[in-house]
Amino acid sequence: MPGTTLRVEKIADTADKLCQRIHERFPDSGLYGISVELVSQGEKARAEAPMIGRPIYSVRVAVVLLIVAILALTVTLLLTAVESTDGLRDINLVDLLTALEASTNQVVLIGLAIFFLVSMETRVKRSRALRAIHDLRSLAHVIDMHQLTKDPGYYRGTFKNTDASPERTLTLAEIMRYLDYCAELLSITSKFAALYAQEINDRVVLAAVSEVEALVAGLSQKIWQKLDIAEKIR
Q1: Which of 68, 128, 162, 232 sits at 20 to 30 Å (Cα–Cα) from 3?
Q2: Fold annotation for 2-54+121-233
Q3: Of 220, 213, 216, whose CA–CA distance to 197 is shortest?
């Protein structure tokens, strides 16, 4: 339902608009470059996220053919084994138990093979989703790096620079806007990650998305603490 699902087009448009806003205020900043990368991730999500939710018919056909081949081979081996015996008259109890054990092992192996093949489509989708989520997780860490040196405490008036202090050219108002942009970039990053979990019901993907959301929440908390300090200074 449109009202209960994330729409990749809307999130991608929001990322693009944010990129434009950052360019208008900080055109030469590294943050603008990160926003461009986030827009690129949005285009990737626009193309790949819906595909993850669709059936991969090539994989399904291959799986069906392989399962049929396994079952056909199993039936052939059973018929061959029956034909090679002279009936059950000459089979003693030990031979019978040995044959049953071997048959049980074969059934288990065949079952595992079929399960592996049936889950192949899910594993292909999972791999695609996890690669995209990994990129978004890395992007969140890069966004955090850009806000590390934006310390509003510098503007209290009692702050003393050292030789290793970063160059500070932004006003307090610009610092606040910069930090706000960082928080927005992090929020959009987590929404792009959530798109992949929305398209596939897989616990591994859901866990990866939850990790990104927890990471973003923690990083955003640091930003909001800085903004709170800036508000008190202003």
Answers
A1: 128
A2: Glutathione S-transferase Yfyf (Class Pi); Chain A, domain 2 (1.20.1050)
A3: 213
Per-residue pLDDT of the chain (234 residues; tens, 9 = 90+): 455 788 888 999 999 999 999 999 999 889 999 999 999 998 988 888 877 767 766 766 777 777 777 677 666 765 665 555 555 455 555 554 555 555 566 666 666 666 666 667 778 888 889 999 999 999 999 999 999 888 887 777 666 777 777 777 788 899 999 999 999 999 999 999 999 888 788 889 999 999 999 999 999 999 999 999 888 887
Output 167-173 pairs: Cβ under 8 A, ≥24 positions apart.
172/230, 172/233, 172/234, 173/234
Q: Domain boundaries in the chain?
A: 2-54+121-233, 57-120
